[in-house]
Amino acid sequence: MATRIPQEFIDEVTSKTNIVDVLSKYVQLKKAGKNFVGLCPFHEERTPSFTVTEEKQFFHCFSCGRGGNVYKFIMEMESKSFPEAVIEVAKMGNIPIPDSYQTENTNYQNSDSRTLLKMYEETAKLYNHILLKTENGSGALKYLNQREIDNDLIKTFNLGYAPNNSDLLLQFFKDRSISEDILRKSGLFAENEDGQLFDRFRDRMMVPITDEAGNVVAFSGRILDKNASTAKYLNSPETEIFSKSKVLFNLSNAKKSIRDNQNVILFEGFMDVLSAYKAGVKNGVASMGTSLTDQQLYTLSRLTNQINICYDGDDPGVEATYRALTQLSDERFTYGVISVPDQKDPDEYIRSEGFEKFNSLVKNGVQTPISFILNYFRRHYNLNNEHDQLEFLNQSLQEIVKLSSPVEIDMYVGKVADEMNVSKESINKELDSLRRSNAIKQPANNYKDIQKVSLERATASVRSNKFDRIEKSERCLLYWTLNFPELKANLKGNNFHFVHDNYQKLYESLLAFGDINNNMEMSDFMNGLDDGGKNLLAELEMMKMPQEYSEQEIEDYISNINNYDLESQVSEINQQLKQAAMVGDNKLQLELTKQLIDLRKLLTSN
């Protein structure tokens, strides 16, 4: 069991860490005045509302309300405890971590999800050990070596081998007293006709699938026997920790390279990603299905705005690329195509032509989508035949009309005109006609546009949330109290109390923290708060406020808050007066009027 991480080490990590550097690994941040903004990683949005302040070392999303310091971000983003987050941030900053501070979750009782994460981590270690250290794994190791997957790459991707044994993994976890219910939920086991569990993966080379944080959440097992009648690949079923629509293979390894290269390469298969990685192309990912989902696109949009497709160069691969381009219409991205020559897949091309040629292809061989699509159409027509020429021209115009850049339109109109030996003027006339026709056919409502507008309205409604006079006073007073110790002392001496529980709770935490720590560091204070307190503190610290407060301003805030109870009583008595008047109860009206006069005197004197 690791020892408790001392405050001195936390202080060291905090002082050597810039929150912008850490969060930039997860979110594409852009400078906006003194702060940085980007798309929130915790919910989907079109307009950036996720803000990071370098000055205060906090983040806050003005849409969903999440906020905190660098440790809170890592805790939420990677499902880590506070000590684990401190260690993670230290690793990112290459800060030496004493062995006694290393954290390891060795129990299985926190939650089902945490148990499953631990099970998958241990399964990956077991399969990797079998591959590299046992006779059982020699065949799989030989297969990988033949495909030029060396031990360094095996280590990087934690590859393994599941032996042809129906209960090796099952017994492994039974010996660790994992419950039957969890075993069934894990997806690591299948069930026979009698309801008995057995290992799902047998005699397969195992590729661990990780989430964005690098946690193993699933496996893809590749069969080694080419003549086997079973499927070439067997993937984990969906579980509490794995959804194939959200996960992108290799994203956790690729994030830095995606940001550095300002693009992501979408490969068709896991082996292509591995080979490209070995060749030095480390910004590659692969989806768990045939096309990118909205969730995967949103994840990528936080890292880059350029997606390059690099599928197999054979006929099925070209067809898959065309389908992908027709489906990828998300306006947050620009797209490119890297066509692999000689009908090879990327893995074959790398092994036959070498690293240098593949790197050159990736850097210099990116086609625009329209260029690829026009080439795709050419494959399907005999351009020496007039009928096919007209069909090719018609389909080409259907694609060119979708372009928005006048320069791009002019360029491709020129290419098609030259190729078909027709004038640019006639093609432009056809394009004008197509635009008019498309405008008429365009439906009044488009589902994706409706979704976008709805999302932006929802975001705007949260951002424009108006606080009443009392809550505005509470927020401003608490902001100044957080930043000026003399106000805290003044409020404490007068037994001040906030109206709303969330502000009072944060205020009480502030008082307690101040009693222990004379020299208050905001990040240290935040570390001791619960999630709600962290969110609120970050929200308050992000408020646009003057450099200094005025005494009159503070007095007004305190007066507004102190008078809240009296004003509530006045409102209640006014309601009662209306009811008494309606029933003609003169005696009650007189009593209530006296109470109202007394309350108004109190309000005037305060």
Automatic annotation (TrEMBL):
Family: Belongs to the DnaG primase family.
Enzyme type, top EC level: transferase
Lineage: Bacteria, Bacillati, Bacillota, Bacilli, Lactobacillales
EC number: 2.7.7.101
Any matching Pfam family: Zn_ribbon_DnaG
InterPro entries the UniProt entry points to: DNA_helicase_N/primase_C (IPR016136), DNA_primase_core_N_sf (IPR037068), DNA_primase_DnaB-bd (IPR019475), DNA_primase_DnaG (IPR006295), DNA_primase_Znf_CHC2 (IPR036977), DnaG_bac (IPR030846), DNAG_N (IPR013264), DnaG_primase (IPR050219)
Keyword terms: DNA replication, DNA-binding, DNA-directed RNA polymerase, Magnesium, Metal-binding, Nucleotidyltransferase, Primosome, Transcription, Transferase, Zinc, Zinc-finger
Cofactor binding notes: Binds 1 zinc ion per monomer.
NCBIfam families: dnaG
PANTHER family for the chain: DNA PRIMASE
SMART domains referenced in this protein's UniProt entry, alphabetically: TOPRIM, ZnF_CHCC
Domain remarks in the Swiss-Prot or TrEMBL record: Contains an N-terminal zinc-binding domain, a central core domain that contains the primase activity, and a C-terminal DnaB-binding domain.
Catalytic activities: ssDNA + n NTP = ssDNA/pppN(pN)n-1 hybrid + (n-1) diphosphate
Zinc finger (CHC2-type): 40-64
Coiled-coil positions: none
Cross-referenced CDD domains: TOPRIM_DnaG_primases
UniProt domain Toprim: residue ranges: 262-341
Subunit structure: Monomer. Interacts with DnaB.
Name of the protein in question: DNA primase
Function statement: RNA polymerase that catalyzes the synthesis of short RNA molecules used as primers for DNA polymerase during DNA replication.
Cofactor dependence: Zn(2+)
Highest taxon in the source lineage: Bacteria
